[in-house]
């Protein structure tokens, strides 16, 4: 159990606070607006302090002297940077993470150093995290989720089985016949929103959501066995030219036909000068006439990326009704994401959920290198590094079928010396293996960490 101090009770701060409380950490959250803190303190077992993130007295009252991790996620880059410096200089907080939106700052590494900079251990940029995730989805249109592990050597994807796919109405053991020598591991199947523990006899049906792990270079073949291949995405309409919309258009405009629809005249003009290969339009994304004039029926992908959830939902549903082939929407309120499950919006994304993975990794026991929330936080994929030897490790030198794995956890793959190994019952774990696990019930997360962590006294 760690003492964690969160500065900023906005969407990211509130989401990560809820998750950390669920994992039984001691959490204190600071915000200068009492209205942001009240709903958190009323439903979560945490301390809520009203005050400035860069006031030494407030930080002391919030327990900075005993904090092991500081998360500075206020809306202001400068506040987050100064807060990290103060946490290090005055209270020697071991790990300090700052949210920074201005990427120009990141070009100067000395700005982050402990000696001459702001003593920032790690930077997160939510807009870039969301942008990178959307790019992966666009490149793999059949997938509902695409996650990278082990420096992109391994991927986990979520795919909905289609009626004419080679594996539809077949048991998982038929994968070997369908794919030949392509190795993969199915770690979860969700049918009618209920988890089905996969084994060789599990028959896949149309509509099932399949969670599958495979080497990145072979993932395309795995997807084609589960989902009828879709034609590549070419025409993209982005509604919302904010941080995410701008970054995404800039990343895509060389390879796709991109239109950006922005409601602010001033922002539209600025976007027009920055996005030289995109068509920038000024207007309302919920206008049926505007969408029709921009040939929404010929659009392969419509992305609703404004800062307003209701506008994203309405414009996304309208775009689909008018003929857009696929719709992705950013939704900040988690309850809305649940409501949109299995709706005419193909993918509903919570930026806060995408962002908290890197924050959760710092709070976990053991050498956790990645945490990827799944199923709106109910499940997760974890990447960790195994350390030690047989005398101090519960897993090193042991076969997978000898491990006391929690009931709701799968050890799916190992990366060893740059080689991807799909785990079988007789796979033996070695020191420094990068292990990738799927945990479909978050109650088992702590047990997984304890199993793979070295015994006390190793370090």
Automatic annotation (TrEMBL):
Key words of the record: Ion transport, NAD, Potassium, Potassium transport, Transport
Molecular-function GO term, any one: potassium ion transmembrane transporter activity
Ranges for domain RCK C-terminal: 144-228, 369-454
SUPFAM superfamilies for this protein: NAD(P)-binding Rossmann-fold domains, TrkA C-terminal domain-like
All copies of domain RCK N-terminal, residue ranges: 1-124, 233-349
Entry GO terms, CC: plasma membrane
PANTHER family: POTASSIUM CHANNEL PROTEIN 2-RELATED-RELATED, TRK SYSTEM POTASSIUM UPTAKE PROTEIN TRKA
Matching NCBIfam families: PRK09496.1-1, PRK09496.1-2, PRK09496.1-4, PRK09496.3-2
Protein name in the entry: Trk system potassium uptake protein TrkA
Protein source organism: Amantichitinum ursilacus
Organism placement in taxonomy: Bacteria, Pseudomonadati, Pseudomonadota, Betaproteobacteria, Neisseriales
